[in-house]
């Protein structure tokens, strides 16, 4: 895998280019048609100077001004120009259409890939960096398909045609002009060498800018509360300055090796042509038409060269952007695999965790030889201090992370053996900080599942008593939810998350401190709903407030990745161990709070 800021060598650039070109296969017929139009415009460009040469040498110089042939010649010239305009428009339109289709597919591929990655990848990659690859980098690739490829192909056609025409007019002079080719090639090679390095740096700085902006927007409340505006402005300014410096390096290379260097070669070629005709005039008369055609062709020769050189910057940006996109597409930190053709079904929901050990980084185990059983309909609670491994058990049970030591069984079969759809359909998750999507309350409960009707949505909301606040809203279930549900309270968002889970009717219920953000009055109401939710369902619940899980069938006390105590609430209190200390600490806090209030 390519590392950040690694400069792409010629072989790697070609590999990226061929991979980008592979996206053109579904559009081969349209591309052939577009190139046919491109060939027509090239032929028209080459024929124009020849018609002018005929007019000068055959009619203007000998003053043979006969109306009919001149009219035909003029009409032919105008017809060529009109044809050129129409065909140029059509080929540009076709290339744009192909490019947009290709980028549309590429963005879908990247977006799909992002959703297939495991949570471990997102733990180490800033969200802004991923956004930059899906948007900015694919946009840079689009420019290559729209302008670069079309320009390069058209320029190749035009340069070939111009050299053929020049050899037809004067072989000796055409040979003199071939010195242009190696010089142009050297300029292009030098430009590719240096610009690749600078564009790689530029794209990386742009990615960092997006990451910092994304982080700032998500943490705006904390930034303002703790007055971090100046610090973040300085950090953003530093990255912005690095982006500016990288951009200036690109500009300097562009300014030296693009138009100025090519214009210098053009002047040298023009001197050669004029010198040749000047020397030749001492020996024999010079055909003005041939001189015009040669200078015109020379000018037209450098026009596509300049276009190619100017497009090289877009090409380098596209190649660098393509390498970043393909790095993401080749990312192997995938979500855990399931047997998609499996016919296993979760019936009773019995969970068995057998000798499971797990590490996020492959060095330090956060879970050590964990074993427990949750019988169908039972509630198993996980308690312990922060960092004890409670959430890690949930992450493995929900198949967010892969594990290779021990096993987790559901109804006697390994959790790895179930079809992913079956696993997601039969397992419901409620997190401490629920995520709401932009849309309506009904959309967030249904989550666009066609099998859930409006009446089922209302029943689910009533079940968890979310209808109490929903009915007070102007549009009730059609009330607009902004991004992340920012206009709703934490408790309201949590109630919607509960309703979402109930509407899906899972066999296994996973609660990750699901009542943490709910006030005491709401908690009392929702405890009743939770009791009904747990009936007939196997429930795994993480809890910090021990009062919420006292009726659990089994309580597991976690400490430093191990289960140090297990039993019911009364059994654990009788042991007078860690659970007993946690219980006294929480009850003591409650007593002190009550005394302070009174």
TrEMBL record:
Its main location: membrane. SUPFAM superfamilies: ABC transporter transmembrane region (SSF90123), P-loop containing nucleoside triphosphate hydrolases (SSF52540). The chain crosses the membrane at residues 31-51, 71-92, 145-167, 173-191, 256-279. It holds the Pfam family ABC_tran. SMART domains: AAA. Keywords: ATP-binding, Hydrolase, Membrane, Nucleotide-binding, Transmembrane, Transmembrane helix, Transport. It is an enzyme of class 3 (hydrolase). Coiled coil: none annotated. Residues 32-317 form the ABC transmembrane type-1 domain. GO terms for molecular function: ABC-type oligopeptide transporter activity; ATP binding; ATP hydrolysis activity. It is a multi-pass membrane protein. It is found in: Cell membrane. Residues 351-585 form the ABC transporter domain. Its EC number is 3.6.3.-. One of its GO terms (cellular component) is plasma membrane. PANTHER family: ATP-BINDING CASSETTE SUB-FAMILY B MEMBER 10, MITOCHONDRIAL, ATP-DEPENDENT PERMEASE MDL1, MITOCHONDRIAL. This is Multidrug resistance ABC transporter ATP-binding/permease protein YheH.
